[in-house]
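Handoff note, outgoing to incoming analyst
You'll be picking up this chain. Sequence as last confirmed:
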Amino acid sequence: MLQIMVVESDPSLARLYREELEEAGFRVVVRSDLRRAMHSLKGAPAHVLVTNLDLVGGRLESWMEHLRQVHDGGVVLLGRPRMSPCIEGLSVLDKSSDLSDLVCRLRDMANNAWWQHAGGNC
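Most recent structure output, in case you need it:
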């Protein structure tokens, strides 16, 4: 089962993400800020980190370099970037109350990870 860490400062949105993603079959951990998320990832890795583009702030490339020190899984940013970043392992989706695109993307990431893992065992 894919372990998802959601970073969301708004408690009602955090609850929505948890409920919808758990209903879709994912294990979900929610953190209210990126500092707590980074600390948690050191001790309890997640397969995918989902956060709001606004929480990242600053330069996306430098934030990803910092994140990669504690997280080697996928990253999904929710929001509208000015430019579409081309960073390996990073997906950007529009932030919406309809989580169907997010659920589809997470399922795709889970399938890809499973096939990569299975490919090494054939």
